[in-house]
Fold this sequence. Notes:
Protein-Tyrosine Phosphatase, Chain A, alpha/beta, about 50% helix, UDP-N-acetylmuramoyl-L-alanine:D-glutamate ligase
Amino acid sequence: MDMLKNLFPISDFLYLLQLEEYETKRYFNTVKRFFWKRNLQKRGKLVYTKRIKITLAFALPFSIFIFPLTPIWVGLANLVLNPYFERIKNNIQRQAAEFFKEKNINTKVIAIAGSYGKTTTKNYIYELVRYNYKTQIIPGNINTPTGIANWILGNFDPTSELLIVEVDSYFIGEIGRSLTITPPDITVLTNIGDQHLERLGTKANLKIALLEVFDYTKPGAIKIKDKKSNLDYALEVAKALNIPKDIVEDTVSKLKKPDRRGDVKVINNFEVIDESYNISFETASFALNNALKIAKSKKKKLIVITAGIPELGEENKDANKKLGKVLAEKANKIVLLKSILYKDVLNSSEKFVLAKDLNEAWKFLEEFDPKKYLILLQPELNDLYYL
Length: 387
């Protein structure tokens, strides 16, 4: 079976294509590093979506007969099929916009955009408003135009009084597409940070992309920005919707952070601050300072597990070197995963120890006393970032 997979590694390269979100140019750039490598699905697995199945059907005959060029056949199949899938996505988005416009009578839309903090803010808003309004929230990380469109077509209840939507952007115009489906009455911009610069190119482009959340609102929409925290944004929305003070106070006292966004859990007997969802230099610095305060209050030392910051652009290309320096100054120990970014993070500090993956990191930590150490867990990153 292993030999067969090595000869016909089509699932591995479909997996890489899926991780690159079917962007042909990014896929071919990635394939340069992985062309002769096999068994690439270590931190995740290929999901056999309809698109993957169709791409597989196109690429497989060529891969069988000229199997050494399998990575190229996968990329070319995606390139040929991309116009077809784009038409499908555009049709789904158009249908969803028409459906929402037709079915929506009294539903107010709350839209949240930003470099980070979107999901936490979305969940806080939901908890604050759900007792006073019949509310729907688009769950999880469904924040792209097609994802939102599919959810609207399959789940929107026209009797809802509020709909809470999270929108994200890998390119200028993407948030506009999302909000064409669900034009908002209340918009929240949590921040303009330093994420996705590899895709968007510059911070100026990132700003343009995120500010679309205000450009595609309904006339007279409430626009909320420049607050200090995710909770402050949620409280501002609650104020705009006249949520009673006693409900706000009771709800705030019970709020919990979403999974992997700074929540505290126990892993391998260690108390762990789990920040493993996303990372930028800004979020990493904030999480580090927060972890230091918690460690100090518990009279513990701090260990950080990290793999580095991905998707850097020209304007923040030194972010991993800055991260390494800050970690060396503030943490007691750093377990650095050997992603393709690790050499930028690593410096001469003796506090660093290398691990090939998260499993090896936890094995290394077996020699530490969980009663004496607090762990800050940053993202391991996906298989695109390992060789």
